[in-house]
From TrEMBL, chain A:
SMART domains: WD40. The lineage of its organism: Eukaryota, Metazoa, Ecdysozoa, Arthropoda, Hexapoda. WD repeats lie at residues 97-119. SUPFAM superfamilies: WD40 repeat-like. It comes from Brassicogethes aeneus. InterPro entries: WD40/YVTN_repeat-like_dom_sf, WD40_repeat_CS, WD40_repeat_dom_sf, WD40_rpt. Signal peptide: none annotated. This is WD repeat-containing protein 92.
Automatic annotation (TrEMBL), chain B:
It comes from Brassicogethes aeneus (Rape pollen beetle). Residues 171-205 form a coiled coil. This is Sperm-associated antigen 1. GO terms for cellular component: cytosol; mitochondrion. TPR repeats lie at residues 252-285, 286-319.
Length: 322, 392
């Protein structure tokens, strides 16, 4: 998905066959598409939620793309990032979509409620909000609990608690946050990985929050360029892939420390960060890889898209040995 | 113009340290004679090796490919975690793979594609235009604006002497202490709450899925989640996920996994139940037999454990774990021979005793009894009885 030279947005649908990729359909709309997700839709419906440069959130039925199933225009500027939750599995709350926009706002949508967001986090009145570059759902381990992580261009990472409707934690990591993901959305929050400009990535242990120290984290330098995105392996949450601006892919594994929680002198527990080990570092393209996703059904199968306008299907072997 | 001049000044200042740029050798303070085969081979300090390797790679001291390789090899030996050893490789294309690997990958993929298309068709047929969800729409609350900074509003300026006169450091310190105390209490309370929350959380009812494919999908996902929790040693959470998985679809694998989780949580009876269920589905499941043995051993039912491990050895005589387990159990079983035996104990009267004595039979007199009783001790005869069932 993306934009054409004539200013129109385009989505192309491919399917994997024994020989290779086969283009199924495509559809064009008025504005460039920026981001999309299937995660808030059930296995049977498979509605694609997209965010575009006009600030529109649209949900499409891929078999009938004439009019969107759902549409809102509450964001005034481009939607940079989108994430969905609990489309496929029940028991972890309502299916919701979160969008982060250049106008600085983060909004949560339920496709059953027309036009109005079910929750929103706006910048302080009077200030121009920072550009929100990344959003991610997490902590949805039952029907009530849910948090959103949002990353901004000034390096802020904010954790919004949707149950309390308040900011739970805030941290500045110096460089703009480009990618964010919880290791799993539908468990009690465990780990949060943030990738930033200037080739830094941060892995937070978000299990234990200390009132002063916050969350423990480990940081790594890789790719020698912006790290565009992070995606955890659906079959093993300790393994994740990061994609770099120089067309490289890094496969990481998080190793837990011997003891994840320690007590400080006041008997308040704080988290202990583990270690990251690099399993594989490889180059795929000479252009930035901005899109990457694992297959949930088949371990090791992944798809990547890069600025050189190519879609590549990857197979990573021997993942089960880790 | 003045602004330009200022910028220029800044630039030159920034450039200055570059002028006095030293070679890496002097920066790391490493003597030149350390760049030597013998030294590198004996060096055990990972950090120093990293520095030497960096110097050699930079080419500042000349180009020595062999020496650089030696340094790299040594570094890999001494300090394998070094970030300098991270290498980039090109992603292999389909053409580059050797035939065997390619074949195995493609066949694996086509098999999977076939099954997934079948599932896909099932799902597509059941497509609904309605968006169903069991949970309610989130109630819209007015979101509070993000509180970016909470600055102290009553900061006293340094020239405001009147206010400073009123300032009492002792009470302020006390205030701070109280604040900290409060914070501490809050944190502890929150921790307690979190724990309670975890305990009572997940009263999830998994609704009946309309399609088989969906149920399978959820079952698989929950199993994977369980495996992750298990690996991270969060056994309670793992158990919850396996329960969900089993609720969706019962398979030998998720039952087996739940069994081992039960063992880790020391709920051995439940583990045995799970193993038995696996054995109904798949009577020759070695893992289930081994796990059953383990659970039974912990329950001190050594004979049953021995029986189950022997079943496992029967299925696969090369299973080393099973052999080890059997050896251990053999020592724990009452009779150390491979054939289990049963003792028959009978009470006999004095006259019979004398008769048996004459027959030169083995007679045991229970000592305890004789000590306690004032009466004449009762004698018991012990027969060695061989069980009819043959386990080997």
């Amino acid at each position: 998905m993306g934009g054409k030279s004539n200013g129109a947005g385009i989505v192309e649908i491919y399917s994997l066959t024994g020989e290779g990729l086969e283009k199924q359909t495509e559809f064009c709309k008025k504005d460039y598409f920026k981001c999309a997700t299937f995660d808030a839709s059930s296995l049977r419906n498979r509605h694609l939620a997209t965010g575009d440069f006009g600030g529109r959130l649209q949900v499409w039925d891929l078999e009938d793309t004439f009019v969107p199933v759902y549409m809102t225009t509450k964001h005034s500027q481009v939607i940079n990032s989108i994430d969905g939750v609990s489309g496929r599995n029940s028991g972890c709350g309502a299916p919701e979509i979160v969008t982060g926009s250049r106008d600085g706002s983060v909004m949560v949508w339920d496709v059953r409620q027309k036009e109005h967001p079910v929750a929103k986090f706006l910048p302080v009145e009077g200030n121009t909000g920072r550009d929100c570059w990344a959003v991610a759902f997490g902590n949805a381990y039952n029907n009530e609990e849910r948090v959103i992580a949002a990353g901004y261009d000034n390096g802020d990472i904010k954790l919004f608690d949707l149950k309390m409707n308040a900011v739970r934690w805030c941290k500045c990591v110096k460089n703009g946050v480009v990618g964010l993901q919880f290791d799993r959305r539908d468990i009690q929050m465990n780990k949060l990985v943030a990738t930033t400009l200037e080739s830094k990535l941060y892995c937070f242990d978000v299990r234990t929050q200390h009132p002063k120290k916050g969350f423990a984290y480990v940081t790594e330098k890789a790719h020698d360029s912006t790290i565009w995105s992070v995606k955890h392996l659906p079959q093993n949450r300790e393994i994740f892939m990061t994609t770099g601006g120089a067309g490289s892919l890094c496969l990481w594994k998080y190793n837990y420390p011997d003891k994840r929680v320690e007590k400080d002198s006041d008997d308040i527990s704080y988290g202990v960060a583990g270690e990251l080990s690099l399993l594989q570092n490889c180059t795929l393209s000479d252009q930035p890889i901005t899109g990457f996703d694992w297959c949930v059904d088949k371990q090791g199968l992944a798809v990547a898209s890069a600025f050189d306008q190519t879609v590549r299907v990857l197979i990573t072997t021997k993942l089960n040995l880790q | 113009m003045t602004q330009f001049a200022g910028d220029l000044e800044k630039l030159t200042k920034e450039l200055e340290p570059l002028k006095s740029y030293d070679t890496l050798l002097s920066k790391y303070d490493i003597p030149l004679n350390h760049l030597d085969f013998d030294y590198i081979k004996k060096c055990t300090d990972g950090k120093e090796l990293e520095k030497i390797y960096k110097i050699l790679k930079s080419g500042e001291e000349g180009y020595y490919p062999d020496l650089t390789n030696t340094a790299e090899d040594r570094l890999a030996e001494v300090y394998p975690k070094s970030k300098l050893l991270r290498k980039k490789v090109q992603v292999q294309n389909q053409v580059d793979l050797d035939d065997n690997e390619k074949l195995s990958i493609t066949t694996d993929l086509t098999v999977w594609l076939d099954s997934i298309t079948k599932n896909n068709k099932e799902l597509e047929n059941r497509k609904s235009s309605r968006i169903e969800a069991t949970t309610e729409i989130r109630k819209t609350k007015d979101a509070e604006p993000q509180d970016n900074k909470q600055e102290n509003p009553k900061r006293i300026s340094s020239t405001d002497y009147q206010t400073w006169d009123k300032f009492d450091p002792d009470t302020e310190i006390l205030k701070i202490d109280l604040e900290e105390e409060k914070l501490k209490k809050e944190a502890q309370e929150r921790e307690k709450k979190e724990k309670e929350k975890v305990k009572k959380k997940k009263t999830v009812k998994f609704n009946e899925y309309t399609t088989e494919a969906e149920a399978q999908f959820i079952s698989e996902r929950e199993k994977e989640k369980g495996n992750e929790f298990f690996k991270a040693k969060d056994y309670e959470e793992a158990l919850m996920c396996y329960n969900n998985s089993i609720q969706c679809r019962k398979t030998a694998i998720n039952l087996n996994n739940r069994a081992i989780t039960h063992i880790k949580l020391e709920k051995f009876e439940k583990a045995v139940d799970d193993c038995d269920e696996v054995l109904i589905l798949d009577p020759k499941n070695e893992k289930a037999l081994l796990r059953k043995t383990e659970a039974l051993r912990a329950l001190k039912k050594y004979e049953e454990a021995y029986e189950s491990v022997n079943n496992c050895i029967e299925i696969n005589p090369n299973n080393q774990d099973a052999q080890d387990m059997a050896n251990k159990l053999r020592g724990l079983c009452v009779v150390p021979t491979s054939k289990p035996t049963r003792m028959n104990i009978t009470e006999i009267s004095d006259d019979e005793f004398e008769a048996l004595k004459a027959k030169n039979c083995k007679v045991v007199v229970s000592d305890k009894y004789s000590r306690k009783c004032s009466k004449k001790p009762t004698r018991m005869i012990v027969h060695d009885a061989v069980d009819d069932e043959d386990d080997d």
